[in-house]
Specification:
The structure is a homodimer. Chain A is an alpha/beta fold. Chain A folds into 2 domains: 120 residues, Rossmann fold, CATH 3.40.50.720; 158 residues, Dihydrodipicolinate Reductase, domain 2. Helix content of chain A is 33%, strand content 26%. The first copy, chain A, has 9 helices and 14 strands. In chain A, the strands form 2 sheets. In chain A, strands 8-9-10-7-11-12-13-14 form an 8-stranded mixed β-sheet. Chain A has a 6-stranded parallel β-sheet with strand order 3-2-1-4-5-6, with helices on both faces. In chain A, helix 4 runs parallel beside helix 5, helix 5 packs antiparallel against helix 9 and helix 7 crosses helix 9. Chain A is globular and about 55 Å long. In chain A, 55% of the residues are buried. The mean pLDDT of chain A is 96.
């Protein structure tokens, strides 16, 4: 029997879980089924506020519910591996919030578990599924900007770097700019240049507590294209992505939550693409449904090998910076 | 007797010399005095077309004319050192087109010769003297954008990289993106973060003839600020410079020939600076006159040590890329 509705379970009831709940409401075949937290009170409050059917006071109970089809892993990312493995070992499909893991070691454990359990597994890199990127890829495939030779993007926000109550500032919670924010410009570059640069370089300034807080990264690819990426906890950046080709370029304002893209031929604006954008997570949710309905264990758009390659880039940058998390 | 008029001699009669001639006409106390070329015909044609008084068929004759006060070195940059030393050894002040030299070895010869002859010597980094940058520095000094934490800039143009007739494509003529174009984003970063980054990284793709044609550079400074710079021969870039601070940022459209700058506080445009801009070289010419009138041998705005530091950054990048010119 082909399922027509999917029961979602949310593992971890923080802020990102609320955003997912809002997006699930936009997807007709998604059921806001169960919320799981380490605290019964928190799970119950989340259930009530966000309109889920069930609340569980432990991740195990959530995963033991045989009616849960897909588990969205919404814990801080240093807890993703354990949570995802728990869910997959209960036969659940998983969508894991970005960054999927802190390092490739964790990635490999997830990939192995997904394979053993024959379940669908994907990183929740929502950006990849926005409708506007379909138009961008059309422009590129039809040769409008010629050969791609450069991609640049930044994602920079202001964070209280001395406040360990802020997750991004806290090394014990896998803080730092690269993993939380830098994963976006890295994915943006990977969308157009692939995820295997032949050379990886970059600089990073560190906070007193020891997380990377101001990064500039340069990548070089086999085809002579380069990527230039910035991420920081110290300033509000432009959030703009650029794809430069030999004949023109594409500018994607706030590419991380993109609702428009601009095609330039020479210096002239030749075409604009605009698309509906609300909440945003619904596009990745639809991709999960589509893949599961087709019996796929991975998405062709965001396959595990690509997430692993990008994680490996972050591993290499951190190795270059001698940046090891306390729990690694 | 304080001079009130300065006789300019142009050494090398190519395209950049024509631009300087046009700018000199905008400076009241500049005299378009003499043009020197290795060819009498070329010098005479240049003299006539651009309104100079004298033409010389060799650089030596130009430098032997005791009425020449200042020599503008306008040869391809791999010939700058010999030409500048010739002029300075004849007691002439010199303005040397960018990049002043191919490497720090050449810079050190120039610095030594300038010092021995007690003449004024400066790199023609015209950008530094544009009026709009005074306003930009005012915004920064008055704390409008807080502490500077990031500078980014690109300078990328399309060049026929397989055509050795194109100087930028030809390794024998010190071609490549970094020296000719990259010197601008490097100077832009130096204007706001200084010229001594504590860490220098970058990637470059090379043309079949062996010049760098697609570069991405990351610099880190002692104060934790970073610079992210791009230069390329493969695509037309944005030519935009950004200075990000903890409270806001400044955007300078076409910063290399800037006539405007925009101050943003948060995401809001708070103020725009605009300034007259024609030709552009006249601002550096006026700086040369001002310094010479005051008996200075260097400009405080573009001192030799700063040019040397930036040349040293380019040396380090090229060393990292194993990029040595045939004549080095």
């Amino acid at each position: 029997m082909v399922k027509t509705m999917y029961n979602w379970g949310i593992l971890g009831c923080g802020r990102i879980a609320v955003r997912m709940a809002e997006a699930l409401k936009l997807v007709p075949d998604a059921v806001l089924y169960a919320a799981g937290s380490r605290s019964t009170e928190k799970a119950e409050a989340f259930r009530e506020e966000n309109g889920f059917l069930k609340a569980y006071g432990s991740y195990e109970e959530l995963c033991n519910d045989e009616n849960v089809d897909i588990v969205y892993i919404a814990t801080p990312h240093n807890y993703h591996v354990d949570a995802a493995i728990l869910a997959m070992n209960h036969g659940k499909h998983v969508l894991i919030e970005k960054p999927m893991t802190v390092n490739t070691k964790g990635m490999d454990e997830i990939i192995k578990t997904a394979s053993e359990n024959k379940v669908f597994c994907m990183e929740g890199m929502w950006m990849r599924f926005f409708p506007v990127y379909e138009k961008v890829l059309d422009w590129i495939k039809s040769g409008r900007i010629g050969d791609i030779v450069s991609v640049s993007a930044d994602f920079c926000i202001t964070v209280p770097v001395d406040d360990m109550g802020c997750r991004l500032s806290n090394p014990d919670l896998a803080g730092g700019a690269l993993l939380d924010l830098g994963v976006y410009p890295l994915n943006f570059a990977a969308m157009f240049l692939g995820s295997c640069p032949k050379e990886i370089q970059g600089v990073a300034a560190f906070s007193p507590a020891g997380v990377d807080m101001n990064d500039s990264v340069s990548l070089l690819y086999e085809n002579n294209a380069a990527a230039t990426l910035q991420t920081s906890l110290l300033y509000k950046g432009s959030d703009t992505g650029y794809i430069y080709g030999t004949k023109g370029h594409i500018k994607i304002p706030h590419y991380i939550w993109a609702d428009s893209a601009e095609l330039f031929l020479g210096k002239e604006l030749a075409e604009t693409a605009e698309s509906f954008f609300e909440k945003g997570f619904q596009y990745e949710v639809s991709e999960v449904h589509r893949c599961i309905a087709q019996g796929k264990q991975e998405s062709e758009i965001m396959p595990l090998c690509e997430t692993r390659n990008i994680t490996a880039i972050m591993d290499q940058l951190r190795a270059r910076w001698n940046f090891i998390y306390p729990f690694e």
